[in-house]
């Protein structure tokens, strides 16, 4: 017998019909001896099955032809390695199709695995073969990331660095994103008893996938989609959960395409409706739409048709009117975006892009790119639940406030009535512009309502051990919505003053509810202020934004002349390019500088008076003297002339 160090034990599920085909009953002593069998076992009643080249011996038992049994199989490690090597040789990696797999250029990704250096997109794809996610992102010509989330889209021209083999591989601060393989899992949110009321419905083609439904709902800017029912994909913005179920997610392949997923559900709840989230894990190349944009389509229906008899809506072309056309209707791009044609890996793509300096966020809006400065920063609490407490559908832990997961299951929770707060330490001073808070998932509306009109506070310091009421010791940022929003969608609070320097962002229930002491959130995101937001809250003044390292400093200043700006954001059919021009002239004087100028001007007048007055007095004095002398001379001449006249008369 081989020694224990040379053998491994396996549990293998065997179909006896297949076992017979593999010669399960055709076994002789020579084979047993070759496999390290013991001659003393010959007298035992043994049935030996050959399974994919692995030989195992077990005591005989009654077996049904339609029953799967678990057999303990002992094999030599050398044989196992040989079989694995043979399998590796048989399975070749399918090279990635750059044209079909390219999705776009992004500023923000969430990676599950990072490889410092690869030489091509295909090499990166191989590095991510074992990951559950289906997308890869390359940066700066060599960095490879297996990603599960992505956000902040920019023009493909910003991914201008190539890999060693000339593939498009991101930029210095941007990522070229590709779909590297078919999706194996989906972003399942919750299983519920009833189908949710839909906001929009697409009639799917015969051989559709669950991913097609996800892309349609994301393209039409909806947060959720649900189990495909009767060939229809339905999307909605807010769920109406009364009872939910969460277990391990199970995904089933399509019967007509074993590479694609057609259904996902939570274990033991296949008969329920599964809700999926669209915002974080999905995107696709937007040059081709998920549905046909036929002119005068029936009642605004959404489907894919082979032909559109009345032609396409403006911005679309092709037989099925799914190809974006920059030469008409702005390419069907949303307001504020321009339609451009880009060349990536020697292939043409059509994109909807935001103006320079802005990105397209996951709500299909253009905004200045901002990082979540609270991500993975240390959270603090006035009180905490026991660590890793499982409570119904939830897992409660202090770390969840800033872990980047906002599905509503992983939450942070307090339970004291005073001072009753949770906070994040940003580890530096920032001018905070706004926060996004994601609530917990709960079917009981009054529990969701605990966060109605919650309060966001700011401060440079925070005594995390104090039990004093901090409401009068901190600065107010603002208030949450009158009615708290269910998990899945963010609650956004814009701060009332963008010039306040803060290191701590603090969350409390409203003053009316503070005594309840049950503040809870799934995620808190914090973003810096900027002049692009409401003119920096400067009202009639001008917002001035200064970069200080990685931070922005916001100031409001007086303006003594008008500022003129003209921004032209358009796409032309001639060159399919994107133009933006801006001309601005501004004469801005700071209030402090103005005061200093006034002081200096007063000093100058004082000096002038000291220097000029004596001169003026001197000139005046000599002028008076001159006038007196002239008068005296005039009188002298007059009297002298009279005497002469009298003399002549005599």
UniProtKB/TrEMBL annotation:
Listed Acidic residues bias regions: 26-46
Biased composition (Basic and acidic residues): 1-12
Residue stretches making up the WSC domain: 99-181
Membrane-topology descriptor: Single-pass membrane protein
Domain of life: Eukaryota
Biased composition (Polar residues): 637-650
One GO cellular component, as annotated: plasma membrane
GO BP: signal transduction
Gene Ontology molecular functions: transmembrane signaling receptor activity
TM region(s), chain numbering: 604-622
Cellular localization per UniProt: Membrane
Signal found in the keyword field: yes
InterPro entries in alphabetical order: Galactose-bd-like_sf, Kremen_rcpt, WSC_carb-bd
Keyword Plastid: no
Key words of the record: Glycoprotein, Membrane, Signal, Transmembrane, Transmembrane helix
Region (Disordered) location: 1-46, 630-650
Record protein name field: WSC domain-containing protein
Gene: 20209184
């Amino acid at each position: 017998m081989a020694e224990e160090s040379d053998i491994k034990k396996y549990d293998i599920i065997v179909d006896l019909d297949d076992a017979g085909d593999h010669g399960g009953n055709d076994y002789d002593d020579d084979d047993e001896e070759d496999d390290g069998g013991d001659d003393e076992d010959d007298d035992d009643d043994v049935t030996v099955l050959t399974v994919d080249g692995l030989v195992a011996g077990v005591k005989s038992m009654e077996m049904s032809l339609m029953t799967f049994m678990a057999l303990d199989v002992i094999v030599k490690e050398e044989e196992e390695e040989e079989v694995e090597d043979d399998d590796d040789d048989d399975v070749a990696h399918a090279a990635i199709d750059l044209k079909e797999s390219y999705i776009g250029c992004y500023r923000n990704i969430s990676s599950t695995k990072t490889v410092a250096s690869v030489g091509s997109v295909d090499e990166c794809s191989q590095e991510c073969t074992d990951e559950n996610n289906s997308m890869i992102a390359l940066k700066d010509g060599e960095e490879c990331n297996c990603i599960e989330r992505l956000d902040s889209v920019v023009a493909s021209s910003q991914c201008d660095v190539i890999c060693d083999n000339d593939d498009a591989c991101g930029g210095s601060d941007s990522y070229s994103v590709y779909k590297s393989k078919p999706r194996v899992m989906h972003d399942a949110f919750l299983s519920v008893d009833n189908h949710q009321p839909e906001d929009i419905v697409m009639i799917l083609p015969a051989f559709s996938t669950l991913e097609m439904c996800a892309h349609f709902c994301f393209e039409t800017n909806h947060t959720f989609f649900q189990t495909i029912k009767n060939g229809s994909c339905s999307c909605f913005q807010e769920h109406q959960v009364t009872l939910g179920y969460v277990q391990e997610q199970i995904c089933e392949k399509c019967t007509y395409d074993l590479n694609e997923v057609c259904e996902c559900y939570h274990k033991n709840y296949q008969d329920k409706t599964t809700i999926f989230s669209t915002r974080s894990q999905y995107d696709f190349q937007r040059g081709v739409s998920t549905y046909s944009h036929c002119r005068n389509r029936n009642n605004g229906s959404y489907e894919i048709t082979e032909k559109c008899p009345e032609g396409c809506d403006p911005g679309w072309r092709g037989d099925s009117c799914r190809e974006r056309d920059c030469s008409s209707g702005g390419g069907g791009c949303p307001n504020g975006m321009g339609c451009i044609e880009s060349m990536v890996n020697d292939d043409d793509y059509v994109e909807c892009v935001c103006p320079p300096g802005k990105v397209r966020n996951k709500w299909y809006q253009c905004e200045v790119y901002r990082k979540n400065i609270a991500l993975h920063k240390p959270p603090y609490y006035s009180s905490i639940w026991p660590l890793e407490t499982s409570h119904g559908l939830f897992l409660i832990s202090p770390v969840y406030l800033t872990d980047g997961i906002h599905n509503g299951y992983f939450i942070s929770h307090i339970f004291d009535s005073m001072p009753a707060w949770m906070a994040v330490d940003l580890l530096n001073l920032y001018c905070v512009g706004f926060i996004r808070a994601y609530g917990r998932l709960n079917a009981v509306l009054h529990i969701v309502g605990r966060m109605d009109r919650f309060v966001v506070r700011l401060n440079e310091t925070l005594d995390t051990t104090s039990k004093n009421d901090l409401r009068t010791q901190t600065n107010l940022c603002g208030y949450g919505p009158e009615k708290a929003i269910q998990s899945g969608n963010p609650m956004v609070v814009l701060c009332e003053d963008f010039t306040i320097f803060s290191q701590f962002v603090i969350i409390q229930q409203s003053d009316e509810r503070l005594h309840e002491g049950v503040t809870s959130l799934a995620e808190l995101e914090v973003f810096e202020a900027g002049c692009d937001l409401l003119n920096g809250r400067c009202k009639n003044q001008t917002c001035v934004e200064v970069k200080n390292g990685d931070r922005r400093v916001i100031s409001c200043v007086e303006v003594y002349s008008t500022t003129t700006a003209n921004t032209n954001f358009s796409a032309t059919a001639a060159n399919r390019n994107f133009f933006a021009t801006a001309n601005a002239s501004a004469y801005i004087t700071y209030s402090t500088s103005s005061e200093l100028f006034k002081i200096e001007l007063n000093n100058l007048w004082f000096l002038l008076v000291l220097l000029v007055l004596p001169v003026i007095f001197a000139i005046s004095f000599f002028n008076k003297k001159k006038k007196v002398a002239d008068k005296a001379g005039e009188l002298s001449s007059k009297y002298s002339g009279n005497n002469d006249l009298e003399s002549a008369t005599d």
